[in-house]
What does this fold into?
Amino acid sequence: MSAPKKISLHCTVNGEPRELNAYPMARLLDVLREDLRLTGTKEGCGEGECGACAVILNGELVNSCLVPAIQVQGAEILTIEGAANHPIAAQVQEAFLRHGGVQCGICSPGVILAAANLLSHDKAPSEADIRESLAGNLCRCTGYSKIVDSVAYAASDLKGTRS
It folds into this structure.
C-alpha cells in the first residue's frame, strides 16, 4: 500500500484565489495555519467542541478541525485574517474592541466569525438568538456577557439604531 499523496486544491481564502497542495484528509485547520500561515485560526480542542478554529466556509460557520482539505475544492473560506475586509465581520471586530468582548484571544477569532455569520443571516437577533449562535464557542475568560453585549452592539450598529 502506497503512502497518501498530496493533491492540488483550488479555493478562495479571504477573497484571494489560492492553490493548495495538501493531503486529502489533512485538517483544514492545519492547512490554514501551517501551509498558508494564517495563524489567527486557533486550535482549542481539536475535536469540534470549542469553536476556536471556526471559519466561514461557503457562507456557513464550520469548525476547521473537522473539515478535510479535500472538501475545500472550489470553496470560499473566510478566516479571522480576512475579517477586516468583510463588512459585517469588521463591524463585529470593532464592537468587540469597544465593549471588551476580547480577552485572552484564543476563542476570539471563532467567536467573531460566529457572530458575523449570525449577523449575515439575521440583522436583528434577540439576546437568546445571540447566545444560541455562540453556543458552539467556549470561552474560559468571561461569563459571556461582554461577548453577547459586543454582538448586540454590532447588530444595532448594522441596523443604524445605536445611539
About this structure: The beta strands are 7-13, 16-22, 54-57, 60-63, 76-78. The mean pLDDT is 93. The chain has two domains: 7-82, 83-158.
